[in-house]
Structure formats: structure tokens, C-alpha cells
Specification:
Blueprint (H helix, E strand, L loop, with lengths): L1 H21 L2 E2 L4 H11 L1 H20 L6 E7 L15 E10 L4 H67 L5 H36 L3 E2 L16 H8 L3 H22 L5 E9 L7 E8 L6 H70 L5 H35 L5
Parallel strand pairs: 1-4
Antiparallel strand pairs: 2-3, 3-5, 5-6
């Protein structure tokens, strides 16, 4: 009773802890922290592991002999007196029966259950990789929207300063009212753009919170962009692809189908029954014992076994074709993502070394030229907008490059 009460208290404590975690609100959520929280809370991984354990336990049960039978009673009792000592043939008997399955059926059934359990073990690994990828992609999307909002918000200060410059130029007689209105319009458009980005950010944060398993995420960590391991060369990635859990699932399913064929083939062989009986005879000086062996004759079940073997073979072929199809899809995705990552890496380097510095220099020079009356406001406005769009594009490329690395790490991940 105490044990049951203790287990109940433990279950209630765990449930309360999970509920408290689900009601949690987090600010400044880091990249790795998001993944760790999601993996701890994911119910699908736990479900697959539980199913794997269930099949492993069933495998142990399948490896055992069937329960023996104990028989007892009386034989050849005279019906006129029902006396056990009247006739010499009357016996009080006790017996034991044990059935031995055909061939290696017990071992084959255990292997079948273990192969089915292995399928769910690898599915747990696959779900872990899938969840990691989803959380990482969601975090990067939330990071992008958050940084884009910060960039646009900071640019508003620049455009507000441009508004003041145009007003000063207009009062000094070196500008016109249209420049003032245009500057105010661009400032208002930036405010609206920030609002739209903020809305997109909230959507991404809500999606991230759902994946992580907490109530609300107010913000992600903008100070620490994730640092990834160096991407391997193409030959290494292609070699590691063979060990992907998605392919391992199909391989385990093929193994289970082969085990099912072995189990079905065992039906062609007979079962053996051992029967040991001891008889006590009160009317005779000597008791009797008997040992009998019975053998089943599967003469009516050949078509049944043949159908089961054929079905298991079809299942194995299906698993083999499924693995081939998955490999082709993963290989095509790997090739596409590897080429995409290479181009993004090149573009990121160009933006950092050339485009961003040049756009800022152009914007600064255009302000001086406008104040000196060398250029018009449209040229100034165009330079500032180019600088803003360059910052946003560089951010987009940075995040896309990181997302491409996440996908490559997922595709080339090795199963256990």
C-alpha cells in the first residue's frame, strides 16, 4: 500500500512539474538552450522509446517455453461402486504435459520482436533529429525577425535625422518642401515596416514556444549567434548519408520482415508434445507410469504457411524499395543543400567585405553632398535605402547560411 501511495505521489509530482514547465515564460532564449528544452519535453521520442522497450519485453516472453499442463484424476473407475481398490485397472493419475514449438521458433519470434523494437529505437533517433532541426530553424527565423526589427528601428533614427536636414535645407532656401514631405513619408513607411516585422517576430516566437513546450517566449538571445562546426567535404557528407536514421528505419523494417519470414517458415515443421503420467493402483501391488511423445503433422496448413511466407517476402521487398527511395530523396536534398550553402557562404563574404562597407560609405557621402548642394534629395534617399536594404539582405544571408548548415547536419547525421 505504501509503495502504491509513493508511486502515486511521484506521478503527481512529475505531472505538476511538467505543468509548471509548460506555463513557463522565457526571455533571451539561447539557441542550444531551446534545443535542450525541446528534447526534454518531447512526448514523441518518449513514445517511440516506450514502444521499443515493449517489443523487447515481448521478445523475452516469446523466447520462453509455453506453460506446462498438469493433469490429475482417476481412470477406469467401476461405476457400480466407484471404489478405487476394486479393479486392477483403476488408477489415480497425475501427469505433466509440455509442448515444444517446432524448430527454432522461440528464438525466431524473439528476434522478430527485437527487430520490431529496433525499428522504434531508430525512429526515436529520427524524431530527435527532426525535432532538433525544427527547433533550430524556428529559433533562426525568430532571430532574423528580431534583428530585422532592430535594424529597421535603428534606421528610423537616421531617417528622422534626414527629415531634420531637409527641414533645415528648406528653411535655408537650399531645398524644397517636397524633400521634407518625402523624408517624412519614408520615416512613416519605416515605422509601418517595423510593425509588420514585429508581427512576424511574434508569430515565430509562438511557433518556437510550441516546439520547445513552454507557454511563452518573449525574446531570443540576440547577443550570441550560433557557432557551428565546420561543414565536412562532399565525400564525407555523402558517406555519412548511408548511416542516416531515416535509412536505418527502413533497414530495421527489412530485418523485421526477414525475421517474419523465418517465423512463417517454422510453421512447416511439427510441434512436439511430451506427456509424462504416473498412475497409482490401490488394487494392485505395482503402480504404473507412462511417457508419451506426440508430434503435430502440419498436413493441412501448407497453404497457410506459404501465404504467410509470401506476405513477409513482399513486406521485406517493400522495405528495401522504401529504403532506396528515401536514399535517393536524401541524396538529392544533400546535393541541393550543399550547393546552396556554398553560394550563401560566398555571398556572405561579399556582403561583409564589400557591399556593406561600400553602402555605408555611399550613404555618408550622399549626406555631405546633399548638405553641400552637390546632389539632390532623391540621390540621398536612394543611398540611405540601399544601405538599409544591404543590412537586411546581409542578415537574411547570414541566417539562411546557418539554416543551410542545420539542414546539412540533419541530412548527414549518423544514426546510433
Amino acid at each position: 500500500m505504501k509503495t502504491v501511495f509513493g508511486c502515486l505521489l511521484l506521478m503527481l509530482s512529475l505531472s505538476a512539474d511538467c505543468l509548471a514547465q509548460s506555463q513557463e515564460t522565457v526571455s533571451g532564449l539561447g539557441f542550444n538552450d531551446a534545443v535542450e528544452r525541446a528534447l526534454v519535453r518531447d512526448p514523441v521520442v518518449a513514445k517511440f522509446r516506450s514502444r521499443a522497450s515493449r517489443f523487447n519485453e515481448l521478445g523475452e516472453a516469446s523466447a520462453q517455453l509455453p506453460d506446462p499442463l498438469i493433469k490429475f484424476g482417476a481412470m477406469n473407475v467401476p461405476v457400480d461402486s466407484f471404489a478405487l481398490d476394486q479393479e486392477g485397472m483403476t488408477q489415480s493419475i497425475i501427469g505433466f504435459q509440455q509442448m515444444f514449438p517446432s524448430g527454432k521458433l522461440r528464438r525466431q519470434k524473439r528476434e522478430l520482436m527485437e527487430d520490431k523494437g529496433a525499428v522504434f529505437s531508430v525512429m526515436a533517433e529520427l524524431q530527435t533529429l527532426e525535432l532538433m532541426k525544427q527547433v533550430q530553424m524556428a529559433w533562426l527565423d525568430a532571430y532574423h525577425e528580431s534583428q530585422a526589427q532592430a535594424i529597421v528601428h535603428e534606421s528610423q533614427k537616421v531617417f528622422l535625422q534626414l527629415t531634420k536636414i531637409t527641414q533645415y535645407q528648406y528653411r535655408a532656401g537650399r531645398g524644397n518642401q517636397q524633400d521634407v514631405v518625402q523624408a517624412q513619408l519614408e520615416y512613416s513607411l519605416l515605422q509601418d515596416r517595423e510593425t509588420a516585422i514585429a508581427t512576424a517576430k511574434e508569430v515565430q516566437l509562438a511557433q518556437l514556444a510550441r516546439l520547445v513546450g513552454i507557454k511563452q517566449i518573449d525574446s531570443v538571445d540576440l547577443e550570441h549567434f550560433p557557432v557551428f562546426e565546420q561543414v565536412a567535404d562532399w565525400e564525407t557528407l555523402e558517406r555519412r548519408l548511408e548511416l542516416h536514421p531515416m535509412l536505418q528505419v527502413a533497414q530495421r523494417e527489412e530485418n523485421a520482415a526477414q525475421s517474419a519470414i523465418d517465423v512463417a517458415r517454422a510453421g512447416y515443421y511439427p510441434n512436439l508434445m511430451l506427456d509424462v503420467t504416473y498412475g497409482r493402483r490401490d488394487a494392485m501391488p505395482a503402480d504404473v507410469a507412462s511417457v508419451m511423445f506426440s508430434v503435430s503433422v502440419p498436413m493441412y496448413g501448407f497453404s497457410k504457411q506459404a501465404s504467410e511466407v509470401a506476405a513477409a517476402r513482399h513486406e521485406m521487398e517493400e522495405a528495401r524499395q522504401d529504403r532506396e527511395d528515401r536514399y535517393r530523396n536524401l541524396h538529392a536534398q544533400l546535393r541541393s543543400e550543399f550547393a546552396k550553402w556554398n553560394k550563401l557562404r560566398e555571398r556572405s563574404a561579399v556582403y561583409k567585405k564589400t557591399i556593406l562597407p561600400q553602402s555605408e560609405q555611399s550613404a555618408d557621402a550622399s549626406v555631405n553632398a546633399y548638405q553641400s548642394g552637390v546632389t539632390d534629395f532623391n540621390a540621398l534617399l536612394r543611398a540611405r535605402l540601399v544601405a538599409l536594404e544591404s543590412q537586411l539582405k546581409a542578415l537574411r544571408i547570414q541566417v539562411d547560411e546557418a539554416k543551410s548548415v542545420v539542414v546539412l547536419e540533419y541530412i548527414a547525421a549518423k544514426g546510433g
